[in-house]
Design brief:
Elements (H helix, E strand, L loop, with lengths): L8 H7 L1 H16 L8 E4 L5 H9 L5 E4 L3 H12 L2 H6 E4 L12 E6 L8 H14 E10 L9 E11 L2 E13 L2 E12 L2 E13 L3 H10 L2 E5 L7 E6 L9
Parallel strand pairs: 1-2, 1-4, 2-3, 4-5
Antiparallel strand pairs: 5-11, 6-7, 7-8, 8-9, 10-11
Helix pairs in contact: 2-3
């Protein structure tokens, strides 16, 4: 299976940094409210490890299973883990995907940020079912949803930029409908020095779309209740076992 991040990993971590300025504290707040007090935290699609650092600070001492299928992204993730003594003790990096990675039972929390759209509906439902079975009492699955929520065209837009030394890095995104519940994103990246282009990369990948209501209904079939958390603009959702929820998170 080809790795769409092989060509974009050079750019991704620096271009998502600004988004994590808001997403990181919101995730930390959600994790601090999880009622389970023991167990491993599973970070699905851990990417370059920004979420792993949030988990480290929000849940001191908790072991972390960081699942990342892309070798290119794992290179950044492993470097980030290795340079921090606490992360080296607590984080296990697994070269697998959401469907293939093994979790322990009694998971304290599952973090699945910026990755649920990668899952076809069947795999998405399998994730809800697995979480319902393997979460510890009071455990939670945290994920986010972002527009579009239907298969529509997304006009090309500059999504992020960063300046490092004399280099300016930029990322652009567009999408087109490619199925009844699917779009294909086209991501374009570039680096410029004093206005002159030094490199370009582009990648396309499939993304399955669904409304919050549809996702809540799927989760309910697995025995999980969905609730929103934090600033609505971030799209954070929390799933807990429906028979153990007792208070609002967010």
């Amino acid at each position: 299976m080809s790795d769409p991040y092989e060509r974009s990993a050079e750019y991704l971590d620096i271009l998502i940094a600004e988004a994590w300025d808001a997403l990181g504290p919101a995730l930390a707040d959600v994790l601090a409210r999880v009622r389970a007090t023991t167990g491993t935290v599973v970070d699905l699609g851990a990417g370059s490890g920004r979420g792993v650092r949030v988990i480290r600070d929000a849940l001191p001492g908790a072991p972390v299973l960081a699942v990342e299928p892309s070798a290119a992204m794992r290179a950044v993730l492993l470097a980030r883990v290795h340079e921090d003594a606490e992360l080296r003790r607590r984080v296990t990096v697994v070269p697998d995907d959401c469907a293939g990675a093994e979790w322990p039972d009694g998971v304290r929390a599952v973090v699945a940020l910026n990755m649920v759209g990668h899952l076809p509906p069947g795999q998405r439902r399998a994730l809800w079912g697995r979480a319902a079975h393997q979460l510890a009492p009071g455990g939670a699955l945290v994920f986010n949803i972002t527009p579009p929520f239907a298969p529509v065209e997304v006009e090309r837009v500059r999504m992020a930029g960063a300046v490092i030394g004399e280099m300016e890095y930029e990322g652009w995104a567009s999408a087109r409908p490619t199925g009844a519940d699917e779009i294909t994103w086209r991501m374009e990246y570039g680096v410029l020095r004093r206005g002159r282009s030094l490199g370009r990369a582009s990648v396309e990948y499939r993304w399955w779309v669904a409304t919050e209501e549809a996702l809540a209904a799927e989760a309910a079939e697995a025995g999980l209740a969905l609730r929103r958390a934090g600033d609505p603009a971030l799209g954070l959702c929390v799933l807990e076992r429906a028979d153990t929820t007792s208070s609002h998170i967010g």
